[in-house]
Amino acid sequence: MNNYKDENYIKSSGIDFVLPKHVGIIMDGNGRWAKKRLLPRNMGHKEGVKRLRAISRVTGKLGIDYLTVYAFSTENWKRSEEEVAGLMKLLLEGFNTVSEELSENHVKIRCIGERDRLSDEVVNAIDNVQSLTEKNDGLTLNIAFNYGARRELVHAVKSVSEDILNGKLSVSDIDEDLIADRLYTGGQQDPDVIIRTGGEMRLSNFMLYQAAYSEFISTDVLWPDFSDEKYIEALREFSMRTRRFGGVKE
Is residue 28 among the annotated active site residues? Predict the structure, then answer.
């Protein structure tokens, strides 16, 4: 639970609606943002990192418990070597410079995804930032890096299968809760809302299991231009949705 809600910030932001507990964001549009300005794609990613830090601060102040952002997918390895190298460099720079800021804002960082293909330097940076922030009790920021929801499900199935082979579980023990617990987000509430910037209308292999009943909001705004105000507008839109979870409300 996020214990650092800023009531003054909430009041000054004009928030008079129910907020979600878990927000997922597909941060799309960095490359297009750069292209519009005749800049290299990695300049767009650099601006995107600045926006992530700002959105993380806002999310923490709002008292939201979890924020999961799609930073690098298992499919992104198909991009140019230059762009991939730039993204890895940004990750390292980010993790090596935000430790003090994260401690001040009580943010707990978790990186969800696979570690194959990541360099030792990147893996060590991930381990370090997770260790530094593991006792923080504010916002939990899940960074989906080298992440794919289908691989996540394969990981969960393998984990359950190993326990069955070792006699720790039986087939009859398998249910939805067990599978959910073996996902990278095990123990966390499913996302209430998933926001996608950049105008696309798909999940792109992001949190497929967890998003079964998430509200989906798409905006044409490119990620580097997704201001705090536009974020709050999206949360307001979420608050106006009627969530039935398969049932009927009168």
Answer: yes
